[in-house]
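Open question from group meeting: does this chain pack into something compact, or does most of it stay loose? Before anyone orders reagents, we agreed to write out a predicted structure and look at it together. Recording both the input and the output here so the notebook holds the full record.
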Amino acid sequence: MPTQFISKMNRTEAGFHLLITLSLSDGGSSEPELSVVSDFLENAFSGKIDLIKEQAFLKALPMEELESHFAEVASRFYAISEPEDRYRLLDFAMQVVMADQEMKPEENKLINQLYDSWDMA
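Structure tokens returned:
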């Protein structure tokens, strides 16, 4: 069951959380990964986002809770999006994990989780 915080997220906020969580999954965000996230914020969805609040939340999120947060936010994004929105976010997600030219096992696990939970082929 989603927390109240997550249940109020719009597509932009949820997408931001998913992409940042992916970038953090291998231990930290790189400049190329953050560049993809910035591109997402500029071009993907037009929902409002309080970057300071969202970044503070993600910075405070314990590493051991990253995967469960990712799953919860993926569920929220699915509930408030159309299939084309999911494909667009998956494109950004793949750009994030490949930004350093290598998909780490932690990133691969989350990407697979996203494809499976959204029933994407």
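Observations to bring back to the group:
The radius of gyration is 13 Å.
The chain has a mean pLDDT of 90.
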